[in-house]
Amino acid sequence: MAESLPDTLPVSPADPVLSVRNIETYYGPIMAIRGVSLDVPKGGIVTVLGANGAGKTTILKTISGVMDPQKGSVRFEGAEIQGRDPDWVARRGIAHVPEGREVFPFLTVRENLLMGAFARSDRGAVAGDLEMVYGYFPILQERSEQQAGYLSGGQQQMLVIGRALMARPRLMLLDEPSLGLSPILVKEIFGIVRRLNEEQGVTMLLVEQNANMALQAADYGYVLELGRIVMDDECSRLLESDDIKEFYLGVKKDAVRGKKRWRRKKTWR
Amino acid sequence: MELIQVLVAGIAQGCVYGLIALGFVLIYKATEQVNFAQGDIMMLGMFAAFTLIAIAGLPWWLGALAGIAITGVFGFCLDAFVLRRIIGQPQFAVIILTIAVGFVFRSAAGGVWGADPVSFDTPYGGLVVTLDENETGRTVIDAADLTIILGTLVLVGALYAFFRFTRIGVAMQASSQNQLAAYYMGIPVKYVISLIWGISAAVSCIAGILLAPKIATFDPDVGFLAITAFAAAVIGGFGSLPGAVLGGLIIGITEQLAQAYLPGEYARSIAPISGFVILLAVLLIRPDGLFAQIQRKKV
Ligand SMILES: Nc1ncnc2c1ncn2[C@@H]1O[C@H](COP(=O)(O)OP(=O)(O)OP(=O)(O)O)[C@@H](O)[C@H]1O
Ligand SMILES: [Mg+2]
Hints:
Chain A has 10 helices and 10 strands. Chain A is α/β, with parallel strands linked by helices. By secondary structure, chain B is mainly α. Chain B has a single domain (2-285), classed as ABC transporter involved in vitamin B12 uptake, BtuC. The N and C termini of chain B lie far apart (51 Å). The interface between A and B is medium-sized, with 28 and 23 residues. Bound molecules: adenosine-5'-triphosphate (ATP) and magnesium ion (MG).
């Protein structure tokens, strides 16, 4: 059934929280993002898959305002936000969980979490949310008075997700939460990502190399290569796609040879 | 001279160095920039207090408070309107700029207030506390020394509480430790850094005002004191606030001991450079300074 559909489906979520249109982002003269468009519907989990250097992080940085796109637009809840400062974007309701667990190493776990709520005006609700985060990540409560720099990698990943949650964001950008974690921990983190989406209603844009986990957690997926979207579909269908199976899930089958393919080699130009 | 007198004078001198060193370290931690105009900002603060107290005739405490506030605002604006313009330039450019700014301040102060030494009255200036009195003489401690020590204790305590327990204070720490992550929290990092410059300038001004009755008079070159304070900051690890104060104390006490107990001509030549002798020794033994934070800092 998947074969009868066109390569790229036109995305038509009723009311996307985030819509990115034709952005082009450069590092100096190097064009890292070459005209990317994507939509994130309210309450959904959308994933962007891509190998090292595909431009996943750059897309998130362009959304959160760390980098400015040379062309194109980023709309959040209907308003254009491209070119704004990242602190402004954060106060607007987008929480960026960067890759590499960027904790505040000399602050305690608790202080890290409270910094997540820095921009909130409803200060009274912060204490309750701290309990909510401890509920999802009990280890953080145990370590609440310890300096964040002394946590393990997995604990730091939990901390940065919990910290972003403290902002009560309407959109969370997650950059490779599975990076460098053991398979069990990856499962746990993705389980919590799903629960946060279902129980707290947080809309997520999740960027991953771990296609298997990401496709299971997300509803809709984009495949990014060398700064371009080469494919996008419902995650259930991407999981069945032969190209995804071969190049991202590591499944090889003879049967897939000879069929019409969107590319032959891993590197697509 | 009694050892206790020497020690108290040394601690007081060290507190002044320590406060100026704090100013260096605050800015360094937040921006990884070294502000070589730190001493000249202190000098401007002292002249602001001089203008308000000695020329405008305000009571000492009011003139001092206003001078501290003005210097703080000045430091904030210096970052927001001058330093901000060269953000992203190499470290070197920032260093040159702060050195140039220091020159400008010094010559501007010379133009406005003249090069002759000035002073302002301090309510406790010239007072002493007598510890011991007998036929051979009196053991006294300068009230100015005690005020410096007391003032430093209060200020360091207040800064500690501010950075530890207030939301904006913790946000300042966060911005220093991981600037990008601070942006992601919605912390207005640029404003926070300007605030840190303001605090740093205000602390320098307090150091200068506490110092004023000790040195009796000052001129636009008084800011060169900051070179010794810089050594104190390096001894303390240049990234540690307690380290900065302790580095200052080590230098201050050594200077006073050298001054009091070395034979005549050595005392005069060695005492002023004793801080740098210690600096060399510390750098040879512990290149990171005595109180360097071991963990690598990100961003
Ligand atoms: N600071 C930089 N300066 C110059 N080029 C950069 C910089 N950061 C990234 N790039 C380039 O931009 C492209 C996209 O990088 P990006 O970090 O977005 O990839 P990514 O998909 O997140 O990769 P990874 O999975 O390794 O995190 C890469 O080709 C990379 O070499
Ligand atoms: Mg990346």
